[in-house]
């Protein structure tokens, strides 16, 4: 890990600690600890088992996307590769935006694929995951609205999510519509500047950037036009979201609370939007978002909600960090060191 990345990580870690400190101050650290100590161990283990199912489903997504690019990875290795990608996302600021380049490096390392192919693979998984999440938010909120009035906090969260996702979709559509122009003109703009910084020949660098961008957009087109694989990948994405929903349901059950699944269907993708914060994998911000959304919608005490979220995030965040960290080390990728 270079000096700049080290500073960013330290700042993000300090920010995460600060968010947790504020959260525990308002909720009550002693009450949260008491709730955690009362959790049923077998159901906590079930939460972690369902999290493994989520990780397996989304690793199959990555394997299927890579197959459409002509990159074939065994099922077991694809699980470790995706765990490594999640690890990269979880230890770099801005979530997927920070971890995708490292995940692409990992994919290219274990499969001998080009870097831009690995980047298309992991980016496609992240983008496709947005589609079921939007559906779950809309369906879950619509059903919740038939059983209870939407609070201003939830309305704001849903409105912000729709606006953010809509903005991302518009930007992606514009980039794709003008990708030929971008691939032709952007290299001539950035190559001279990068050449001065890294002391490379600008003309050679421009050709290299243009070639890589051309292959990048070509790979995106290959993924988007492979309809059967696209349907399979979207189905696996939905399965992953449902496994996460089941995991959080079981986490609440471990504390003795029965929370309707339709609430968790929209809360999980909404809370994950906090992963865009400049914190390692959204650590702290996502937990706070969960508590903010779940307390008014479930009626469960804040201390119990926080405890359930900590169990859930232990399975969804910390377990992949452990598995993925070992995976990255075993594959010999040192970009994070």
Q: Identify low-pLDDT runs.
A: none
Overall geometric form: globular
Number of strands: 0
Structure class: mainly alpha
Question: Can you tell me the number of structural domains?
Answer: 1
Compute the number of helices: 14
Question: CA-to-CA gap between the ends?
Answer: 4 Å
N to C succession of SSEs: HHHHHHHHHHHHHH
Approximate helicity band: over 70%
Mean pLDDT: 80
Rg, nearest Å:
21 Å
Strand content: under 5%
Biggest pleated-sheet summary: none
Layout of strands and helices, then pairs:
Blueprint: H1 3-27, H2 29-37, H3 41-68, H4 75-91, H5 96-111, H6 115-128, H7 130-147, H8 152-177, H9 179-198, H10 202-225, H11 227-254, H12 261-272, H13 285-298, H14 302-330
How would you sum up this structure, described in words?
The chain is mainly alpha-helical and 337 residues long. The chain has one domain (3-147, 228-330). Helix content is 83%, strand content 0%. The protein contains 14 helices and no strands. The protein has helices spanning 3-27, 29-37, 41-68, 75-91, 96-111, 115-128, 130-147, 152-177, 179-198, 202-225, 227-254, 261-272, 285-298, 302-330. The longest helix has 29 residues, at 302-330. It is globular. The model has no long low-confidence stretch (mean pLDDT 80).
